[in-house]
Amino acid sequence: xxxxxxxxxxxxxxxxxxxxxxxxxxxxxxxxxxxxxxxxxxxxxxxxxxxxxxxxxxxxxxxxxxxxxxxxxxxxxxxxxxxxxxxxxxxxxxxxxxxxxxxxxxxxxxxxxxxxxxxxxxxxxxxxxxxxxxxxxxxxxxxxxxxxxxxxxxxxxxxxxxxxxxxxxxxxxxxxxxxxxxxxxxxxxxxxxxxxxxxxxxxxxxxxxxxxxxxxxxxxxxxxxxxxxxxxxxxxxxxxxxxxxxxxxxxxxxxxxxxxxxxxxxxxxxxxxxxxxxxxxxxxxxxxxxxxxxxxxxxxxxxxxxxxxxxxxxxxxxxxxxxxxxxxxxxxxxxxxxxxxxxxxxxxxxxxxxxxxxxxxxxxxxxxxxxxxxxxxxxxxxxxxxxxxxxxxxxxxxxxxxxxxxxxxxxxxxxxxxxxxxxxxxxxxxxxxxxxxxxxxxxxxxxxxxxxxxxxxxxxxxxxxxxxxxxxxxxxxxxxxxxxxxxxxxxxxxxxxxxxxxxxxxxxxxxxxxxxxxxxxxxxxxxxxxxxxxxxxxxxxxxx
Length: 544
What we know:
- By secondary structure, the chain is an alpha+beta fold.
- The chain has four domains: 29-142 and 272-318, no CATH class; 158-264, no CATH class; 324-423, Immunoglobulin-like, CATH 2.60.40; 426-511, Sandwich (Immunoglobulin-like), CATH 2.60.40.10.
- Helix content is 21%, strand content 31%.
- It has ten helices and 26 strands.
- Strands 1, 2, 3, 4, 5, 6, 7, 8, 9 and 10 form a ten-stranded mixed β-sheet that branches.
């Protein structure tokens, strides 16, 4: 590659970060705009837009602008289906509703997603003469710009949900348990793919939250799943956004396309600035059945009037999150009061409602299936399970659990987990654990499949008082040291307390009395000492 093309490429990338003219600079999306009410119906099932990550051909949509009753400016609600950067949409793919009309039918849009559509863009257009035809000409004249804007707005929306979930989680923790912020914030950041400034955790507790939420837009890390959801079939917008993220200013691939996407939207839509209309991106924040629009520029009701541009989820095959069980969680305890099924690979399960009706399917000892509702909790790094619904006596020593639910309209299965059942614990001495003798310390190993459930280990010597000992959990059991003072002759009891079980598991230990020392042998004569003379035998008695 010659020097000149390299220089040109560098200038092109750098220009994305160059200061914009005052009228085009991208301010944060923090100006509250109008809201839209949207529901989607597929194969007889209706869901609010908050539960729908992707649209599909044949979907029925009901869309209405949620404007105040005293709305003075008349807005035309326009929906346009797009089918690619180089393929202008036909005129019959444009729909309009007069939000100020008295009849309910005229104020709303009832649409069916056509075959071949890839995106759905929404416009709120100030009422003027020729407004609908002017918008149609603009979109059909340069469809690629609106394809790009639709994709970028969706990407920015998904990244914004993760950022908001992180900020809310930090604030919630700071308000309720600030002393736990150091413990919780890394889990929260990992769950949502947010950059964690570890230096903040070294500061005083009363300033940790403020430090963790600085430079908000730069906190969002790249999430391949959300990019897969929003990428266009042409691939060009995603490629450009990822190129931006791969520059030093964009974090060398470390940050998501969020920064580049937000920065570039004004340029894309600014090309349509006319004497009559200017186009303003509206970032959709999904709230249950509605989409609340956030603006980064003050709309104008004088010429050029502002047209608000929003986007609904892309029209493509559903992409469920690639959830995986978090490493290092081969065995969990079914008796833990705060039981969590830890997962990674899906930040959007915490920041959106796309994953819904989630349950943990558990097979009982009798072969039945029990479905227990679970909730995605970013602060805990997985799905929390209501353990009160899990009656441990119905299961064997090992409990198999699988996450299952819906991603939009599509059912999907999550990872499996193996739970240890403390109610079915069977503890025994490991091989070779014999010959325990009074007064000598010993290392004791126990075999058992419920080591994850152990909360305390104690020893009660024969005729003595119970005392707790420190233990180490292993793959198939636990080990601990018996102190010499606990080693009194007789039957000692090892008491193992388990989460979720009221009575401890008791294991007897036979401790033998210390054997008596052997008698000392007689001392041998010392040849160096003088020998005493032998005693003379007494004389025999006289004869009678």
